[in-house]
Amino acid sequence: MLNPNSSISVTQRMQSCCATISLPAGYHVDFRTLAEGPPVIECQRDVERVVLPVCDYFHANPADAFVIGCFSDPGLYLAREELGVPVIGIAEAAVLAAVGLGARFGILAIKQGSIGRHTRMVRQLGYADRMAADRPLDLGVAELLDEDLSIARIIDVGRRMRDEDGADVLILGCATMGAYRPRLQAELGIPVVDPAQAAVMQALTLLTLNYAGIA
Q1: DSSP code of 164?
Q2: What is the secondary structure of 171-210 as a DSSP string?
Q3: Is 159 inside a domain boundary?
Q4: Whole-angstrom distance, CA of residue 128 vs CA of residue 130
Q5: Is the pLDDT reported for residue 213 higher than 60?
Q6: Sign of dihedral through CA atoms 151, 152, 155, 158?
Q7: pTM for the whole thing?
Q8: What SS3 class is residue 107?
Q9: Smaller CB count within 10 Å for the chain: N or C?
Q10: CA–CA dist 161, 156 (Å, integer)
Q11: Do residues 104 and 138 share a domain?
């Protein structure tokens, strides 16, 4: 799994959340950080800036499958076109997991500016009618690493999507939020999808079913 920003703390957060996944014998997930990436990815310019570096990194570091550890899935389609192994974006994987868990999902976005990217992605996947809401937390990537600063806001926005928007599944719209999944799920009583975990499991499924080589 490649974190396309240069924040090692974000990489460590994803690794910690995915450590709860029990992998079959013979499987291992490496967590890497794109050193030349921006400190955070919070706008379209940040996304576009890392598309080529992400794909180049994958070419230079062969693996059986690749996961792009950013909820904007930068470089996903280019990497799928150029690499002969499964390439998973955590946002796409999260949506695919959510539609199997309930009728309507809500996305907890980091900021208002993220919502347009999410909407385009959901429409492209064909699930626009299944999205109950996409609400911003108004917190940045770095702020979300601070539980004291962010957990109350995450719970509040999640509760509003459940009660006001009719969401029966929630998606955490940032790679940094996975640590809050157990508490949010317990507080709200509905499934909560950690995109990093969802992506690892999707990659594992594709490899187990021997889909390698299918872009």
Answers
A1: T
A2: EE-SGGGGGGHHHHHHHH-S-EE-HHHHHHHHHHHHHHTT
A3: yes
A4: 5
A5: no
A6: negative
A7: 0.93
A8: strand
A9: C
A10: 9
A11: yes
Total domain count, the chain: 2
Of 52, 70, 78, 50, the closest CA to residue 1 belongs to 70
55, HSE (Cβ side, Cα atoms, 13 Å): 16
Asked whether the predicted pLDDT for residue 215 surpasses 90, the reply is no
> What range does the domain containing 62 cover?
2-89+197-208
Per-residue pLDDT reduced to its tens digit, 117-132: 999 999 999 999 999 9
As a whole number, mean pLDDT of residues 37-48 equals 94
Q: Is 28 found in the same domain as 8?
A: yes
d(CA 95, CA 24): 24
* Token pair belonging to 96: 């695919």
Contacts of residue 211, Cβ cutoff 8 Å, sequence gap at least 6: 86
The one-letter amino acid at 21: I
CA distances from 101 to 10, 44, 94, 169, 176 (A): 27, 29, 11, 7, 22
Single out the residue of 69, 116, 63, 112 nearest to residue 92, CA to CA: 69
Lookup: tokens for 191:
């499934």
Residue (of 89, 81, 146) closest to 118 by Cα position: 89
Q: Burial, 84: exposed, middle or buried (Cβ in 10 Å; 0-12, 13-18, 19+)? A: exposed
Query: Can you read off the two tokens belonging to residue 169?
Result: 């599944």
Q: Write down the pLDDT at residue 68.
A: 98
